[in-house]
Each structure stands twice: as structure tokens, then as C-alpha cells.
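Journal club side-thread
Mid-discussion, someone asked how the predicted structure for our own chain would compare to the paper's figures. Pasting it here so we can look after the session.
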Amino acid sequence: MISTRSARPEQRYQVLRARCSAPGKLMLFGEYAVLEGQPALAMCLDRRIACQASLEPGSSTLRVEAPGVFAAPIELPAEALADEQPPRPELRLLWPLLQRHGVVGEGLSLCFEAGFPPTWGLGSSSASSLAAAAALRRLRGLTAEPAALFDEVRAAQRALQGAASGYDVATQILGGYVRFSDDGAPSMERVLPPLGSSFDWLVAWTGRKADTGDMIRKVSARHKRGAALYGEIGALTLAGLDALRAGDAAALGEALSEGQGLLERLGAAPPEIAELVHRLQGSPSVLGARLSGAGGGDCVLILAADRQAAIRSCDEQGLTVLPLAPEETGLMDEELQ
């Protein structure tokens, strides 16, 4: 056992280094309604964010490095972990995880490596915090138990932004397609399409970054709890699930486009971007298209009938097709690979 000094005598580090990663994700169905207990369906993508957690023997510094997110590494006295509030606002999401698993006064380094930028809207915050939580648990000799990780990361999200269903964390833990709901108790399930079925996905960047927290506040103000529209979104999610489980690409594409209409009724699709999506929907190369997740911008999710022709249609609309594909593997302990 590695000897440490802790404000919590029962807490000790067990290993010197751990590295874990989590994939990006996009929501297919269930936006906003998932906060009302309705089901959501999301999928993982093949770009990941990794976190390497390392002990720094002889050091009493907490160092967090996230190139492309932080302008420079953040260094603090490791004694700061005894403080309830983070000394730096950039650490607000990580702080509950560091407090839960860190050892006060012991040198610790967290280094993040991102395979995609935050601007793409693929859940970089949830992927980063999930990878960090898993790596910190490994340092303490704890397993990456899905329910415990989910609870820890969702609690950190809620401490930062208030409303958070946790669908993103659940999806990134399990990988592939994931059905999530929480009508009092969270439920997460990996969804497997039939063998031999094929869904040709494209993800196109609108060039406009959306603020999910801001979008949630605006939509919640417009559509109060219990609004019938949330029930319609939940019903569409179930229809999309049925199509996915049946391997029916045409039905899934139709549901995808219907989801765009519901997003517009929520007031979460800027008119100029909605018009681009409508033009894509009218292309014979596209089975269905919609803004993903909370809307507002970020990415358009497209189910293609003819991939190359659909890419040309995106180019014509000024959308940038991103180098992404579905990912079957969720949270990964890279030290064990």
C-alpha cells in the first residue's frame, strides 16, 4: 500500500498511475423530456477523452492539465482539497470528484487528452469528468462500477449546472446505443440492433456552438413541467427504439426527422439552422436528419441512404461533415489494454 496523509484516514492511494478514457456521444431522441422522466436514446462516437491520474511522490502540488481547454496547467497546493469550494472556477466540475477521491496534501497530477474539441458538442464535459472519476477510483484500488461512477459524475454535473439527467454519463459508460430514463430511479440499457443491420450515420458541424445549460433554462421557461410536448418526445423515443431494434433504417430516419419538428416546437432550433436541416431532409440521399440533443447549434445528425451524395448535400448547405463513426466501447481502463 502506498502511504499517504489524508484528512479522511480510511482513504489511501493504492497505485501510482491510472489512465481511463470515455467516448463522445450524441442524443438521438429524448431531448429535454428526459428531465421529465421520459426515455432518451443516445449513441457513442469514436473520438475519446482520456485522463491520466498520477501520484507525484515528494510533491504537495495538485496539477491539472487540459490542453485546448485551459490556457495553461493549473497548479494548486494539494492542501486545497480540504476546501469545499474550488480555488479556480475552471475546476468546478472536477472538484467534487477530486474531493471524493483525492488525498489532502498528497501530490497528484491529472492530465487530459482530448480527441475532439468542446465546440463539437459531443459531451466533452461529461466524458472528461467520467474519465477522471474512473482514473481516480483506480488510484484508490476501486473498480469502475457503473452505478457508482454514474452517481458520482451526475452529482458533480448537478452541483455545477442544476438540471442534469445523466443520460450522457450513462451512454459514455456503456458504449454503443444506450436507452436511458430516470422516473425516480435511473435506468440504463445497452441497445443492440439486429445482426446484419446497417445504419450509415453522418455528423455535420453547424459552425455554431450551443450552450446546453442556457438552452435548458430557456426551454424550461417556455414549457413547464408536465407539458404534453414532453410526452410526445417520449413516445417518439420509443418509436425510434423500436426501429433501431428492428434494424429498420427507413423508420429510424423518419423518426429522426420527426424529432427535428418537435425540437422546433420546443423553440430549440434557430430558424436559419432549421432551414438547413429541412433542405437535407428533402434530399433523396438522406433518410432522416435533425439537430442533435439540446439543439441551438452544434451538430446535425444525419442517417444517410447514399453516403457520398449525403456528404455532398451537407457541403452544399455549408455544413462540415466531421470524421466520426459510432463507437461500441464505452468507458475504458487503458492501463488494462
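Post-session note: The radius of gyration is 21 Å.
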